[in-house]
Amino acid sequence: MAGWDVAVTAMGGVAAIGFLVADGEKRRVAWVSALRRCVLRFSDAVRYEQPPLATLFERIDLRATPQERELTGLLHACAGRLARGEEALAAFQAECVRSPGYATLHEEDRAAFEGALCELGKRALLEQLRLLGDADERLRQREAALSRDAARRAQLIRSLSLAGGAAVFLLLV
Description:
about 170 residues, about 0% strand
């Protein structure tokens, strides 16, 4: 009977891996949503307060989701680097190396947010607001596309992992 135990355990393990990967699709959508919310906060702060860049990063306080809390932590850590004279994008990317959640995003997911970070504090007020508006629109489109596709991809991944688990079970029995 030990063969059955191993086969069932292997089947469950393969299926569980698939379900974890499928959950990653939902986390990716949540991260893009957190980036978009941050861009909206940047836009409001730049429009009404016009703080220095380090102060802007320190004032961001998003707490609704785990992704927003992690993004807030990254921005607060960047504020110290900015105070020491580093560029905003370089400081943010250096902090993101330590963030496993931010690493779930693909390059095209990050492009709009990081592009806006490059230009914050370097341009005139209206130009910064335009760039933030463009970044928000790109993130909104990305979020909509990911939301639409994530459910289908997650279901496919789950189905394949269950089929893979069954195949492993049959091979081991």
